[in-house]
Specification:
Blueprint: H1 3-29, E1 33-34, E2 41-43, H2 47-70, H3 78-101, E3 103-107, E4 110-115, E5 119-124, E6 128-134, E7 139-144, E8 149-153, H4 159-169, H5 179-185
Helix pairs in contact: 2-3
Length: 191
């Protein structure tokens, strides 16, 4: 048995789980930014997710460069180093795109939804057919009456405040399929 390797794998697993636990803890306790003039609330990914995405996309290649300068790779390792240069940005670039471009602005008029994947759209409260929750993907889904969808990940800080506004402006029947999402957030379902 190679004990240092086994211990290294366990340490990596514990660090990964601890980081994900920290992200979940921060998202459950976070708050949205509030405009004092309009009382509109802005929901975005937290600093931990954005920082992790930046670190993975730009920090990992920088670290590989520093290691390659301090300890030059062997001639046969050229393709392995090239693979590592491409691997980290390829894995974390979609997370970076999502974490920097996602925004949900909630106001008495409705939802201003900005998705990096589906573009931007404003929905008045009357334009919203329902809000559901996907247990498999761990996100809320806002469905417009015309079929357009907007996804709100569970890791967005302060979602309890968003659900509070949804309860205020939407009928209870529009929230019925989001009940498991309420439970995932530890929030009491209305009624």
């Amino acid at each position: 048995m190679n004990w240092p390797q086994i211990i290294g794998h366990h340490v990596a697993a514990v660090v990964t789980l601890a980081f994900m636990g920290l992200v979940l803890w921060a998202s459950l306790r976070g708050k949205p930014l509030t405009d004092p003039y309009t009382n509109a609330m802005l929901f975005r990914h937290g600093i931990l997710i954005r920082g992790f995405a930046l670190l993975g996309t730009f920090g990992a290649p920088l670290a590989i460069t520093v290691i390659a300068i301090l300890r030059p790779p062997q001639p046969g390792d050229f393709w392995a180093v090239c693979f590592l240069y491409a691997l980290f940005p390829a894995i974390t670039a979609p997370l970076l795109w999502e974490s920097m471009r996602f925004a949900l602005k909630v106001s008495p008029e409705g939802l201003d939804c900005r998705s990096p994947w589906r573009g931007a759209r404003f929905l008045t409260w009357d334009d919203i057919k329902e809000i559901s929750y996907s247990e498999a993907w761990r996100w809320f889904v806002v469905r417009a009456v015309d079929g357009w969808k907007f996804r709100v990940p569970l890791l967005i800080p302060g979602l309890g405040y968003w659900l509070e506004q949804c309860e205020r402006y939407l009928p209870k029947s529009a929230l019925a399929r989001a009940k498991t999402g309420y439970e995932a957030l530890g929030r009491q379902f209305p009624g």
